[in-house]
Amino acid sequence: MKHVYRTIAVAALLLIMAHPGPAAGQMTANEEALVETQAQRHVERYYNFYYERDPQSLSTEIFSSPWMTIGGNGIHIITQEENLAYFEAAIKGLLARDWNRSTFTTKNVCALTEGSAIVSGTNTRSRTDGSIMSVGGVTYFLGKTDEGWRIISYSGHAANKVVHCPVK
Questions:
Q1: Domain spanning 2-18+26-157: which CATH class is it, in words?
Q2: How confident is the model at residue 25 (pLDDT cuts 50, 70, 90)?
Q3: Which among 1, 9, 111, 140 is most buried, taking Cβ atoms within 10 Å?
Q4: What is the DSSP string of the chain?
């Protein structure tokens, strides 16, 4: 069953990234700016829920279901059944390491279509004493659903790597 979710999730991500769709390249500057703002705000909302230590909201209001992480070990699919436990464990693990908050610094936002975007930047984790725990790059792939914006996937990477959308 996990193989089916993985295939569906990868196919959906590839379609979002590769399919030109009717709106691709046809957004006005105002429409593009609106998509960029909405996507960036959704990622900020995600970080606020983490700071509030709110695994319930993280598991129901931020990500699509299923969603995936993409990292050094490949793709990991998180199903709806695993979602809440995933965030509970993540927050518990961070708190055990004296984590206080994570701050996302947006480096670039790419409005792909009116319903899809990429937000790329850095995640700075700090401890309760204010010292820096880690700084890493992260890129979020977002899509708009009937319930609003959702993160479909993210990939951690080096802090100096940022996804850009060059204008042709």
A1: alpha beta
A2: low
A3: 140
A4: -HHHHHHHHHHHHHHHHH--TTTTT---HHHHHHHHHHHHHHHHHHHHHHHTT-HHHHHHHTEEEEEEEEETTEEEEE-HHHHHHHHHHHHHHHHHTTEEEEEEEEEEEEEEETTEEEEEEEEEEEETTS-EEEEEEEEEEEEEETTEEEEEEEEEE-TT--------
If you count them, how many residues does the chain have?
Answer: 168
Q: What tokens does 165 get?
A: 């959308």
What pTM did the predictor assign? Answer: 0.84
The full set of domain ranges for the chain reads 2-18+26-157
Q: Which amino acid, residue 4?
A: V
Beta carbons within 10 angstroms of residue 5's beta carbon: 17
Query: SS3 of 130, please?
Result: coil
Q: Each residue of 125-138: pLDDT tens digit?
A: 999 999 999 999 99
